[in-house]
DNA sequence: GCCGTTTTCGGCCCGACTGTTTTCAGTCG
């Protein structure tokens, strides 16, 4: 039972309790517990097995949740969950995916009409049964019918990189508005989450009507969900929701802080404000003087945090993980930036499944300000990509030697390989070949579904191989498409730390592998991370910024990232092992 | 259900918008 499954279980319990109308703070405790467990760098099972440690020392996990964790680890299930499911069929939770239908109304539908599924609800709406219920009306019925169609189609979060393209288009469109003074995109996009569920736009403008009309004119709008004085929500044809808020200039910073989130971060910020006798909302920070709220901050975000005695937090850190503790200790990390990156150590050419030649990749890398790159085509096991056997890779390396001679010495082209870790363990190329490389990535492409012990053993085996520089995309997940391998990451991290093998943060927006939590765990163990693009074309080099974002979310500084170093220093680091 | 420099009870963030209401509950972020 890994942390993710424990967290998912707590989230489901929260959903079911919400449906039952339980104490909202009890529900929040389960949601907090879920998030805490999901973000934990150590596995719950490990902490439980360690007599010197106690789960209740983790913030947000009390006696009760600790016992439930233990039950889940021991038995694989939870008595409480079974009881809840005997009262409420799990399928009713589908109803909560309908926009505008929350737990209260869903519970009425279940209790009064016995509705358990989206199909059942659709029938009841069409027959007019729903509009007869107290608190429901014709309009609600119409809203539900529209929402059912929406909930039935996959309501997927989009990759951050896709959101980024959309943000560019929306920004360009909205900047045409007359009297637009300030425009910013907040929410999970600003926090650099790997996926984005909706977009939050914040605007200061002379006339909110003009801005809203302008958004209404955006060509990809499918539907306007809400439009009031200061707030508007639309749905794009892609299904993505876009929320717009128009705020006065003196509140812009407070609104930016508020709508950037995360929700959990803000709950803690508000709690702290309250402790200091202050009030904070999206309009500003207020002190109560003689019964009246007096604004003391709001125009800029830094000032809002300063008013509470806090430093400005980089948005990527606002997840209610460790940022407040760091702030207290005056130890907020100075996060790595794109400008810190000097090399890119994972890319493919047209020798295998890439599109560019070696020379084209070199030119593209130079124009992006890089000082070195490694060519890391696939090894022969990846036959679909025409992976290189020993003979071809040695020929490629000779070619690289030749190209290096023509380069001015300012730029270094490295002889690399992305060598497969074979299904039965061991590397796809002999050690005597790997020994001639400057840089060896090891990665799994086949046998991804192997049981935990076996796949962990394969990866740890590669880590122990002295010729292997780093493990590429260590968990193999593809966001929204493929689960990670069932690999024991603690064992991988432990082995990497012991053998001085680096771990990759693959910057491809569909991978972002390692994820933020794993990055933090690697940092805690002193394992250097290498952020690589895995480019299959010259344009592919541009995803580096996605990797940087993920690294920042993991709290990594430039010194935690190996390819911020000059190649000579990085090579020395590799030989340390 | 969690938490505690006001510590074992009593809090726990707060405002906009909508629909079905005649003054507010539900939902959302």
Record the SSE blueprint.
Blueprint lengths: L2 H18 L3 H16 L4 H6 L13 H13 L3 H9 L15 H11 L4 H9 L11 H15 L5 E2 H15 L5 E6 L1 H4 L4 E2 L1 E8 L2 H9 L4 E7 L3 E6 L4 E6 L5 H9 L2 H13 L2 E4 L2 E6 L2 E6 L3 H7 L15 H6 L14 E2 L13 H10 L4 E4 L14 H17 L5 E9 L10 H4 L4 E5 L8 H13 L5 E2 L17 H11 L2 E5 L9 H9 L4 E4 L11 H10 L13 H10 L1
Parallel strand pairs: 4-7, 11-12, 12-13, 13-14, 14-15, 15-16, 16-17
Antiparallel strand pairs: 1-3, 2-4, 5-6, 6-7, 8-9, 9-10
Helix pairs in contact: 1-2, 1-5, 1-6, 7-8, 12-14, 19-20, 21-22
The chain binds one DNA strand of 29 nucleotides through helix 2, helix 4, helix 6, helix 8 and helix 13.
List the keywords.
577 residues; alpha/beta; seven-stranded parallel sheet; DNA-binding
Question: Overview of this structure, please?
Answer:
This protein has 577 residues and is an alpha/beta fold. It is 42% helix and 15% strand. It has 23 helices and 17 strands. The strands form four sheets. It has a seven-stranded parallel β-sheet with strand order 11-12-13-14-15-16-17. Helix 12 (252-260) packs across helix 14 (301-307). The chain is globular. The structure holds one DNA strand of 29 nucleotides.
